[in-house]
């Protein structure tokens, strides 16, 4: 275990003005607080915060961060309190430790909504002070290094959480080395066979190639020196998880991988970066399409470097990364490279992150918290932002837009501005007209063509890649649906006022909004269209003296009561049976029925799906057709496939039928019966004996021995229908009975 003076020396190497007394106090306090506590490995528990602090000294962090690392488990696992830590070490360190304590309590691998809320809390804690994230990443790294001591049932959970949350966060903060180690340790736990297989293949390749890396390092360094460029060259093999990811992405085998070796060439200036690039391209053949200039176009996490892949010594493909020493610092330490100190006295400093684009990304992500996203939408948005590697595209005026891989012009449009996305009708990529679903590539210049008459189709949600675009499409879809409901509700209100003998006025409705607990007249009309406000309540809110007519005084009620159900709850939905339908006595009729279904206003025209209908007991959905009304389908109806591209038309409806109701509902069955005298009579008898009512019948010749009957029947509910079908199947003349759902 690291001694007290050793920790101080590690900090002093990069910060000669470190506050040694502060570090000593924190060391002693944490050691005493954890006392005789042990880790699962049997080591003293204090060894863990000490190793976390050591990892952070490699990142060259300030005294306050190192002290917070030493103390990060004290509030959670010992009798220490925030007040005590604030008294001994100051408010800044106490706040850091408290933030880490809150994060420790989070369970990021859980049910979707809970995970989203936990991720939200994590990002909020990080937004207050990014050093909280740096300590947490170091904490997770040490826990992953010692994962073998964790109970087996917890290892996969911890590894998956690391791969899903912490490794991507490290990447977004520009901490590539930490990201790669976290990914590798997680990969080894979650897929041990795949990890071992790749490790063995890399080892065999290393033995077969001999000292290839050293040869390329030496040859590169000598070639650059001959051209007057002083450079440090570092070569390495790619890590197993990186190799596995490339194999998965490109669907190729290990033998097909061509660039398992990477080399960093570190020079003294930006000018030397491009000079070195010229030397490399002069000596070795470049691999087309593998050149990337992140110096002129840095990544959002501040990463800057020139990448190229060449066919180098021994005809090996090797990737070269050329950068300055400052760029190397940021590539290694990411946001930690922005650690500055308030003064030269060594007093605890603050992380000054205003220069960091990575921290700007984090701040931007936090802004999404104020956009009213649901927990699931927030989780989707944030994970998309975390996981995807990026492509860089340009507007016609040269503005750089960073997008996830596989992004489309739809994502590009919403990245420029939400209004641009909502009004996009087409695009040009590099000057040529292209579909909005095209996959963008690095360096593409994208021009979005817009129209004020456009509203985004709901299908864009499945095409867009970025969380921002998906959320914007959802909002626009909800707005469009609300506008449809408002238009429908306005027509319903107009008819209701006319029937009541009242003059309809939107101004009067607007004045009555406080009585209806709505903010505007449009909100009222949308609520009427959705069935949330009854028209009687609307009229009464506008004219408190109005008295609605008694039910027996309503002019549109059939005088004989035919077809009406006595409802204890729910709303009356009015619709007409199609011309030519039969009533219960078999006579032609044009009849109004009241169908009790929750979620739809009483004046909205409703009909059942053709060729099959629906009965209580079926799971049902409503499909809204503006200007026509709503059609009720059973959830299993194949006809619903016709509306998959219009999710805004789907309504959530449920049966609300009194069990004592005598109402009947339409269903359709096909009966295959023997072609024998009396077979039709037996089928009709089976239906009649069980209380079913035949509403229509078609005979179809099937063969000499069998014929098929398509029967429209009226039943009380699904149980009633199943009873009739079971009775039919029991008849000797019946070979098969099936229900038709469209």
Helix-strand layout with pairing:
Layout: H1 4-12, H2 20-34, H3 47-58, H4 63-71, H5 74-77, H6 82-89, H7 91-104, H8 112-128, H9 131-145, H10 152-172, H11 176-190, H12 192-209, H13 212-226, E1 232-237, H14 240-250, E2 261-267, H15 270-283, E3 285-286, E4 292-293, E5 306-311, E6 317-324, H16 325-333, H17 357-367, H18 375-387, E7 390-394, E8 400-404, H19 409-416, H20 418-422, E9 424-429, E10 432-434, E11 446-450, H21 460-463, H22 467-499, H23 506-511, H24 521-530, H25 535-542, E12 574-576, E13 592-594, E14 597-598, E15 606-608, E16 620-625, E17 629-634, E18 650-651, E19 654-655, E20 665-674, H26 679-689, E21 693-701, E22 706-715, H27 718-730, E23 734-740
Parallel strand pairs: 2-6, 15-17
Antiparallel strand pairs: 1-2, 3-5, 4-5, 5-6, 7-8, 9-10, 9-11, 12-13, 14-19, 16-17, 16-18, 20-22, 20-23, 21-22
Helix pairs in contact: 1-2, 2-4, 3-4, 3-9, 4-7, 4-9, 6-7, 7-8, 7-9, 8-17, 8-18, 9-11, 10-11, 11-12, 12-14, 18-22, 19-22, 22-24, 22-25
